Amino acid sequence: MWRIEAREYARQERRRGRRFAFTELVPARTALVVIDMVPFFVSDNPYCRGIVPNIHRLAEALRAADGTVAWVLPAVGERTAVADEFFGPEAAEMYRTSGGTGPMTERLWRDFVVHADDLLVEKSAASAFFPGRCPLPDLLEQRGIDTVLIIGTVTNVCCESSARDASTLGYRVIMVADANAARRDRDHNATLHTVYRTFGDVRPTSDVLSMIELLS
Predict the structure, then answer these.
(1) CB 137: neighbour CB atoms within 10 A?
(2) N or C end of the chain: which has fewer CB within 10 A?
(3) Which residues on neighbouring strands pair with residue 35, listed in sequence order?
(4) DSSP strand E in 142-206: where?
């Protein structure tokens, strides 16, 4: 189960006079950024499989409101001595190829369908917003996007990295608590605390759907 501690909500309410920084969004200026929902991460992780319905709900609602859905996949990068040293050669190779090969639409988890107006990109870093490692920021700028909804897996690695860098680049960041997944609740909730405290809002799918539908 996800949670933000009551004392952290109280701290933000004292500081800015309200619980959430971003109380509304403009769907046409909003992107749902779906991180690394590929078989390598999803197939053996029940937490990841559990967020699939919420991802569907968010994607359908945002598309219907003229927003953007962006699917982000791990690129197959160059093998490096540093990665081999850090992870060990076998694990480094496993992570290097975690996104699979072949057409990107076929590398997504099998329950997802990419629509014609969706974005489909690869990233060669943990973050989808790290300069020079993913085309996503440029594509979002072309569409006038100012708000990003971060979802996918794993919460405490690529999703958190993307949320941090998106905030640094000036986006309004909302991490959707029950549309992100890690391997343990403690890892998931530690990231939610960090993001809510410093980088963006943390809201459940139901809240975000209400924001989309209210202003669509």
Answers:
(1) 21
(2) N
(3) 72, 152
(4) 147-153, 172-181, 201-203
pLDDT bin (cut points 50, 70, 90) of residue 215 is low
Whether residue 62 contacts residue 179, with contact meaning beta carbons closer than 8 Å, is answered with no
- What is the DSSP annotation of 90-141? HHHHHHHTTT-SS-HHHHS-TT----TT-EEEEESSS-TTSTTS-SHHHHHH
How far apart, in whole angstroms, are the C-alpha atoms of residue 213 and residue 216? 5
Nearest-Å Rg of the Cα atoms of the chain is 17
* pLDDT tens string 53-103: 999 999 999 999 999 999 999 999 888 999 889 889 898 888 888 888 889
Cβ neighbourhood burial of 202 (10 Å; 0-12, 13-18, 19+): buried
Q: Name the nearest CA neighbour of 112 among 166, 173, 60, 186.
A: 60
Q: What share of the chain is helix, strand, coil (3-state, %, to 5)?
A: 45, 20, 35
Structure tokens at 191: 């990231």
Average confidence score pLDDT of the chain: 95
* pLDDT tens-digit series, residues 10-25: 999 999 999 999 999 9
pLDDT(214) > 80: no
How far apart are alpha carbons 94 and 35 in whole angstroms?
A: 18
Nearest to 176 by CA among 83, 61, 17, 82: 61
